[in-house]
Design brief:
The complex is a heterodimer of chains A (628) and B (99). Chain A has 628 residues and is mainly alpha-helical. Helix content of chain A is 73%, strand content 4%. The N and C termini of chain B lie far apart (53 Å). Classes of the chains: A mainly alpha (628), B mainly alpha (99).
Chain lengths: 628, 99
């Protein structure tokens, strides 16, 4: 462990910048976006410097910590607000600041017509600060602060155009779904504290060997719930599609590259918990496998380009979650896929934003077509991202996704066949829906209105796209050459402990299989979408179900929302009739009683005198009777 | 003569006074009935003093007389003032606090 004194700047710079932009108000309108971008770029610079200084150190000295202050001190329980930059965090820090900076640059042009651009950049900086805190915190409690911070930033940015009620509702939906996950995280922290008396990663890791399996399973399940909420995994996946209401750069940064991968980070960070509980690990595998198919299926039926990409994000994060359930070696592949996905998915979102920018914010792909001719740079960069996501060699996704499929097959037994088969099927569907997006958007005949004048986007927009496209090409090869990333992450995830069991399928076989199913998916999409009607055909029952996101909202509505509302109404009724009834009844009885009692106050002296006489007589009689 | 007869008389007088207070409307008469009740009490005091053979009861009756005198002074003054302002000495008219 090395101590460092400037990790805090990574968080403080964007946080201060966000505060300045929000507090100065309209004064900062003219230059606010430049400040935000500059700050983001400087955090990236710090991250790069930290990365190289980390590489220059060796072995155990690589991880750096910084103790900021004692946050909670109760008896023997101490929580320090400290930062930890190790081999795992630096991957995230580089991704967040790097992609974040590119998206800041992109947004300068993308948001140039929005009169609230300064506020947008303030929120972006707030997000960067919170996300960096999330990955730099050295305890679950510190992570929780960042976790809530990114939730807030996500809410603010999804609802950035909250003058449209549907967008405001989408923001609320994301917030509420995230809240369910957050309950999981807070319960996980409580379990960790109750079991280990510590909430720091190191403390929990130390305690794991002495803990009962049941406690570890509970802890793992709660961490998985938290991850599912933040990463839009089954069964908390419903918010991600609606989150596309936010501006496209937000979808690229928060809802594709960084925030939604926080769940993968959480599980990878807690690898010692999941390695110790097979039940929790199996739950992770199940959630990942279900979501990767769920997202892929939903992606096949979406006409909204951003929602198609969102479904794809969900599916790709499903792959990552699945990988984190596959034991020590899986974590490294999850992170590898996370990083390559960060490149190609952010690139494709920016491409989608570029198309929307040229098409008067039209998102319906059925109204696109032949855009490749008018927007060549966008088409090429998007195409490179496409080749990366479907896993064509030598693009990034080929290395990262094939590794996951291979590992899934090789966990052994029927479980391996089922999970590997699911991953393979997911790859085929991915190829289908991504080809569909490409065909509908960039090729074919033009289907847009005459009012739309699609044109190539300004340089500020296409330069980030080009850089991300280069990342989509090269990152997979770089991470995989000589197992660079696996070796880099080894101290964190203990990948060396993984026994090289008997492999069910050789890497070459898996690659060949994957390429085969991908080719099938691509071919089906090309044949099916040779002609594209502008109005979506009615489709059969299955198509309609998939279009309705596999009925996720109907399910939530029927099973959760309406019974919840009924329960609320019941309690409101109880409150009104029963609780208020008691209170009002007491008051009413006293009021009626006193009204009646007041009638004897008639103002006549003689009646008062009579009451006195009667009273004295009653008193005397009582005394007489008692003494008798 | 049986000493309890005095107590019977005292009780009768007291009852008369109490009934008078309750049923009569004229303030002067009500007032006189109050005096009657006080004097009935005095008679009882003196009787008990006689029974016990000491002076405690008689002293108490003197106190009662002093109180009665003070009460007459204040009470008559109120009745006269009331009569002057309202041309009536009926206690039923003096119910302003209620209305």
């Amino acid at each position: 462990m090395t101590t460092s004194s400037h990790l805090v700047y990574l968080i403080a710079l964007p946080l201060v910048s966000a505060a300045i932009l929000l507090l100065l108000g309209r004064i900062a309108d003219k230059w606010g976006h430049y400040v935000a971008t500059l700050v983001s770029a400087s955090t990236f610079a710090i991250a790069v410097i930290e990365f190289f200084s980390m590489r220059s150190r060796s072995g155990d000295a690589r991880a750096a910590t910084q103790d900021l202050f004692t946050w909670i001190s109760v008896g023997s329980f101490n929580v320090h607000a400290s930062l930890l930059l190790d081999q795992l965090s630096i991957c995230f820090v580089l991704l967040i600041t790097g992609v974040g900076t590119l998206i800041h640059i992109y947004s300068i042009a993308y948001m140039s017509h929005d009169h609230d651009r300064r506020r947008f950049f303030a929120y972006l900086n707030l997000f960067v600060a919170a996300m960096l805190l999330l990955v730099l915190g050295d305890s679950y409690l510190n992570l929780y602060v960042g976790w809530e911070g990114v939730g807030l930033a996500s809410y603010l940015l999804i609802g950035f155009w909250n003058q449209k009620p549907a967008y405001a509702v989408a923001a609320k939906k994301a917030f509420v779904a995230n809240r369910v996950g957050d309950i999981g995280l807070s319960l996980a922290i409580m379990i960790a504290f109750a079991q280990f008396g510590s909430v720091s990663f190191a403390g929990v890791k130390e305690g794991v060997p002495h803990a009962s399996t049941a406690a570890l399973t509970a802890l793992g399940a709660m961490l998985l719930l938290a991850a599912a909420g933040k990463s839009a995994q089954f069964p908390l996946q419903s918010w991600l599609g609606d989150a596309m209401a936010g501006p496209t750069p937000v979808s690229a940064l928060i809802h594709a590259a960084t925030m939604v991968t926080a769940g993968v980070y959480l599980i990878t960070r807690s690898n010692f918990v999941f390695d110790a509980s097979h039940t929790a690990q199996n739950m992770v595998i199940a959630v990942g496998a279900i979501t990767l198919l769920f997202g892929a299926l939903v992606g096949t039926a979406k006409d909204d380009i951003k929602k198609a990409l969102a479904a794809s994000t969900m599916s790709q994060i499903g792959y990552m979650i699945l990988a984190t359930g596959l034991g020590p070696i899986g974590y490294a592949f999850a992170i590898m896929h996370l990083l390559t996905h960060g490149f190609f998915k952010a690139g494709m979102f920016l491409g989608a934003g570029s198309v929307m920018h040229g098409m008067n914010d039209e998102v319906n792909m059925r109204r696109y077509g032949a855009i490749g001719k008018v927007m060549p740079i966008t088409a090429v960069t998007f195409g490179l991202g496409y080749l990366a996501i479907i896993g064509v060699p030598p693009f990034a996704g080929f290395y990262s996704k094939d590794k996951i499929i291979e590992t899934a097959f090789n966990i052994g037994g029927s479980k391996g066949v089922i999970v590997g088969g699911a991953a393979l099927l997911g790859a085929a569907i991915t190829a289908f829906y991504m080809t569909r997006v490409i065909v509908l958007t960039f090729t074919g005949t033009k289907r847009w209105d005459d009012e739309a004048h699609p044109h190539e986007s300004p340089a500020l927009m296409w330069i980030p796209m080009v850089i991300l496209a280069v990342g989509s090409i090269a990152s997979g090869f770089l991470f995989n050459s000589g197992h660079a990333l696996v070796k880099w992450l080894e101290p964190v995830v203990n990948a060396s402990g993984a026994e090289e069991g008997e492999a069910l399928l050789a890497p070459m076989t898996v690659s060949a299989l994957a390429l085969g199913v991908v080719a099938v998916g691509v071919a089906i999409a090309i044949v099916k979408y040779r002609t594209v009607p502008v109005e979506a055909p009615a489709g059969n029952v299955l198509t309609r179900i998939v279009r309705r996101d596999l009925l996720q909202d109907d399910f939530n509505d029927r099973v959760l929302v309406r019974p919840g509302q009924a329960l609320t109404r019941f309690f409101v009724g109880m409150d009104k009739s029963f609780i208020d009834g008691i209170v009002r009844g007491v008051g009413g009885t006293i009021a009626v009683g006193s009204t009646n009692l007041r009638k004897i106050q008639n103002g006549y002296v003689r009646s008062y005198a009579l009451i006195m006489v009667v009273g004295v007589l009653a008193l005397l009689t009582t005394i007489w009777m008692v003494t008798l | 003569m049986n000493i309890s007869n005095y107590l019977y008389l005292s009780a009768i007088l007291f009852t008369l006074g109490a009934v008078g207070v309750v049923v009569r409307r004229n303030a002067i008469v009500v007032f006189m009935c109050v005096e009657l009740m006080l004097n009935a009490a005095n008679l009882a005091f003196v009787t008990f003093s006689r029974v016990n053979g000491d002076l405690v009861g008689q002293v108490a009756s003197f106190f009662t007389m002093v109180v009665a005198a003070c009460e007459v002074v204040v009470g008559l003054a109120i009745i006269v003032t009331m009569y002057r302002s309202r041309r009536s000495a009926s206690v039923d008219d003096a119910s302003l606090l209620k209305r």
